[in-house]
Amino acid sequence: MTPTGISKIGLCIGFLLIAVPATAQQAQDLIRAGSRWQGEILQGNQRFPTTILVTERTGERIRGEVHFSVGSRLNKLTFQGNVIDNSTVIWITDKKEGNVTYPGLYLGKVNGNQISGIWQVPSAGQYDRFVVTLVR
Questions:
Q1: CATH match of 3-134 with 2.40.128.30
Q2: What is the pLDDT at residue 12?
Q3: On the chain, which terminus has fewer CB atoms closer than 10 Å, C or N?
Q4: pLDDT number for residue 7
Q5: Which of 60-99 are b and which e, b meaning 16 or more Cβ less than 10 Å from the residue's Cβ?
Q6: How far is CA 77 from the centre of its chain?
Q7: Where are the domains of the chain?
Q8: What is the DSSP letter of 101?
Q9: Higher pLDDT, 13 or 87
Q10: H-assigned helices in the chain
Q11: How far apart are CA 46 and CA 120, in angstroms?
Q12: How confident is the prediction for the chain on average, in pLDDT?
């Protein structure tokens, strides 16, 4: 992906974060405050064990943390974003702890109890995929 492609995707995600209004949360929604998702962030041929914690949900707005391990080191990001039609998630990350690059842009699709999608850190030229499964 070229730097131009990354910028366009970043702009699209940013637009969605601003343009999508908050609506009422559906009762059967899996992306709720207190939910915990485990899986991995992929980058090239590397796989980083990952936990995503949704700490807040108000309507379609979400906040939380991404914890991922690189070797024996735990790294942490905070995020805020939106849930769209309980089937798509988008968020922007910021540094909390560890050797991380930021801000990152994440776009994922919910399929059953799994979220899979793409992530990017345009300022560092990094991008790839992630997949997590609901634990609780």
A1: yes
A2: 53
A3: C
A4: 52
A5: bbbbbbbbbeeeeeebbbbbebbbeeeebbbbbbeeeeee
A6: 10
A7: 3-134
A8: -
A9: 87
A10: 3-19
A11: 15
A12: 86
Which residue has tokens 């998630």?
89
Token representation of residue 113: 């109890």
What Rg value do the Cα atoms of the chain yield, rounded? Answer: 14
Q: What is the mean pLDDT of residues 96-116?
A: 96
Which tens digit of pLDDT belongs to each residue from 14-37?
A: 545 444 444 434 434 899 999 999
Distance CA 6, CA 113 (A): 28
**What tokens does 95 get?**
């540094």
Q: Is the dihedral of CA 44, 102, 3, 39 positive or negative?
A: positive
Q: Which residues pair with 50 in a beta bridge?
A: 39, 68
The pTM of this model reads 0.81
Runs of H (alpha helix) within 20-86: none
d(C-alpha 120, C-alpha 127), whole Å? 4
